[in-house]
Amino acid sequence: MYTIMFVVAVAGLFLSTLVLSNLPAAAQDAKPSLVKDVSIPTNAATMGDKAYSPNPVEVNVGGGVTWSNDDTQIHTATSGAAGSADAGSVFDSGILSPGATFDFVFDKAGTFDYHCTMHPQMVGTVTVS
Ligand SMILES: [Cu+2]
Fold it and tell me: 27: which of 12, 18, 62, 121 is 20 to 30 A away, CA to CA?
């Protein structure tokens, strides 16, 4: 009886190892906990540094941020300071319609300020370490 249980357990272990090792690399790398969600709340245009929530947001290198436009107006999440020469050079959501989302993965450490191109008073920061 115990021998049979042992054989079944070993076979199960072997099969699950086989299945896991054959998963595509992308599936094994998927770690949802590394992604932070940032909401653009209702009336964001009037909210300054509260227009992206939470703000600031911290992620590890290799982690990502998903911005969600939960407002009724269009917005962007655009790296850099409004109107600066390098605005949008790290990331730029483009126009986010109400309900739209934008994902970006950070592969370098640093402090990344960003803003909304339509409402430059909307500002946020992503800290990557
Ligand atoms: Cu905006």
Answer: 12
Q: Please give the Cα distance from 44 to 67 (Å, whole number).
A: 13
User: How far away, in angstroms, is 96 Cα from ligand 1 center?
Assistant: 9
Give the pLDDT score at 81: 98
Single-letter amino acid code for the residue at 127: T
Q: Hey, what are 96's tokens?
A: 């986010």
Interval between CA 9 and ligand 1 midpoint (Å): 56
| Mean pLDDT score, 30-51 | 88
Could you tell me the distance, in angstroms and rounded to a whole number, from the CA of residue 90 to the centre of ligand 1?
18
2 Cα to the center of ligand 1, angstroms: 66
* Range(s) of the domain holding residue 81: 31-128
* In a shared domain, residues 23 and 42: no
Q: Which residue in the block uniquely carries the two structure tokens 């911290």?
A: 58
**CB hemisphere CA count around 64 (13 angstroms):** 13
